[in-house]
Amino acid sequence: VLFAPFLQSCLLCNIMFYSLEGVNLTAAKERGQLVFLEGLKSCLDLLFGEEEEQSGQPSPLQFISESASNLKALFDFVRTSLTPAGTDSWKGPVLLVDDLSVLLSLGVTPVAVLDFIHYCRVAVCSQLKGNIVVLVHSNEDSEDEENELVVNSLCHHSDLILWVEGLATGFCKDVHGQIKIIRRVSLELTAEQDHVQIYQYKIQDKNVTFFARGLSAAVL
How does pLDDT run across 170-189, given as a tens digit for each residue? Predict the structure, then answer.
């Protein structure tokens, strides 16, 4: 879980595509602009009983050691992070969850995952006028019904969907895949259809290059 209140038009794309060029997360964390929950470290601290001894507070990942898949502690962590000390307040916060499918792998039920996202939407989007960005995995041939239930529900409630997939024609060294950008105009209860744009991309050492389908420099 990443929680960041600074300008997001650049940060969101960089985070989603794992290219942090121009965004110094360490500096942002030191300035109090970023709260970061490292899942692996928190799991280890919880299993060895170190986290609660140090902070005196329940671990955000408390559900791992419990029989019931209750994400209340994780939501409380998000809500607490939304309330900075003093009179300072965050404007336009963004909650980044990377990735939500892991919760299902840890035994959390789809209902609990969707309830968690619902409460986060109320706190971040409705109350604070912010945004939520969630990464999930899906596959047309997937037989994981629980994961597909979560994916379909998130797509139904999202304003913007970035669907990244490989090429239908198979591997290509110059084009690594394509991204479909779906803007959910239909959520505004208008007669317009959703806007769909499709681009292809190539992953490089420090960035990602996007281009219209069939317009790769290697092809031209």
Answer: 777 888 888 999 988 766 66
